Amino acid sequence: MKRYRLMIYMASGLFILTSCDQGQSHRETVEKPDKKITVLDQVDQDGKIEVKNVEDIKGVRAFQFLNEHSIIVSKENKQFRSQDFGSKEVYAQNLATYNLKNKSTFVLHPSNEIQHAAKLSPNGKYLFYKGAKGEDTFGYIMNVQTKETVKIKDALLYPSSGEWLNNSEVMFITMEGKLYKANIKGEAEQLLHRDERILDAVKGIDGIYYIGVNNQLFFLHNEKTDPEKIRDDVVSIIPSPNGKQLALVQQKDAQTRTLSITDLKGSEAFQLALSTQIFGVSWSPDGSKLAYNFISEKEGDIGIFIADGLTGDVTHLNVNLDYAADQLAWSPSGNKLVASSFTQNQVHTYIVFLK
Questions:
Q1: Helix/strand/coil for 214
Q2: What does the CA dihedral 230, 157, 110, 167 come to, rounded to 10 degrees?
Q3: pLDDT of residue 326
Q4: What is the mean pLDDT of residues 105-111?
Q5: C-alpha distance from residue 345 to each of 59, 68, 70, 340 (Å)
Q6: Nearest alpha-carbon partner for 348 in 2, 340, 276
Q7: Hey, which of 33, 90, 297, 326 has its CA 20 to 30 A from 191?
């Protein structure tokens, strides 16, 4: 059991997370001339968030739940041997579904390429993914039911970007740093006409948030042509499922990142974490919780944490997983969490069953 002290500066938004040894919970409000400071001593309580079981699946990398009992993963397909690595035995990595009940896998689109970054459309009918051949990364859209797949035309994609705008259009960043969208026929067009390079972009309410050079966060309203600057030093942005809050990871200095919950204008409600590395941030389907991977070289804390999006209560999951490689993903019910890691010279996927 680990205790965290959460200091929420209601006006200034400053946050401090420290470990404490005392055994009693305590709340204290300190009045200042320009702000009210609420100090919460938080304790992980038994039965609040607990790990029921952890399933270790060797040799697959997970991306997203297809449904409550099936996960989209990638795995080696030894039908195809890559020709890009000399004499080393390297095989294609193809997308597949993994059934949690019978432990079976089904390859979705056999191909001699590295398939990754799979994302389902909101209605679950289409799957956007990327395929790497050599140094080039291409985009594909698959009909989940028929497995018919189209290649996005005339675009080389940046490896880590891409998300659905609606049920029939996906947006992504090209290798040149331009923001494009494509329809389910594979037809692409530039979505945002800006001279500067775009590093990341996500859909917001009535517009698009994007991160430009020097990690500046902007919002471009659908009905406007000029973007509004929101904040500086933003590494990643994750809107809540209802679109009314933002989770922001910011780079404060070379050794410090913070995770904050803000409103749509970037005004901070409170910070959840301050650490060396914070990544894999993912909202639960109902928007009540945030899961993230946390590495603190100074404090020695490491692993997967879950924070309450309303109160800021933080729970460190008792899971033997230190370094999750990808974004964490929730099942539709919010009762399962999936993470992938490369350990012991092999990729592992961990299904965390929560009570």
A1: helix
A2: 50
A3: 80
A4: 94
A5: 10, 29, 25, 13
A6: 340
A7: 326
Q: b/e map of 195-217 (b: 16 or more CB within 10 Å)?
A: eeebbbbbebeebbbbbbeebbb
Instruction: Please say whether the beta carbons of 119 and 128 come within 8 A.
Output: yes
Given a contact cutoff of 8 angstroms between Cβ atoms, the answer to whether 51 and 355 are in contact is yes
Residues in CB range of 34: below 8 A, 6 or more apart: 11, 12
Q: Which residues pair with 3 in a beta bridge?
A: 43
Both structure tokens of 245 = 């809050």
Between CA 62 and CA 169 the distance in angstroms is 23
pLDDT (tens digit, 9 = 90+) per residue, 153-194? 988 998 877 899 999 999 999 999 999 999 999 999 999 888
Higher local confidence (pLDDT), 351 or 7? 351
- B/e letters for 122-134, b = 16+ CB within 10 Å, e = fewer, are eeeebbbbbbbee
Strand partners, 343: 346
Which of 110, 104, 105, 150 has its CA nearest to residue 126? 150
Residue 318, both tokens = 């008792």
Report the DSSP beta bridge partners of residue 106: 97
**% of residues, the chain, pLDDT over 90:** 55
CA–CA gap between residue 195 and residue 178 (Å, rounded): 9
Please give the structure tokens belonging to residue 302. Answer: 């490491």
3 state SS of 213: helix
Would you state the structure tokens that stand for residue 102, as one six-digit string? 């019978």
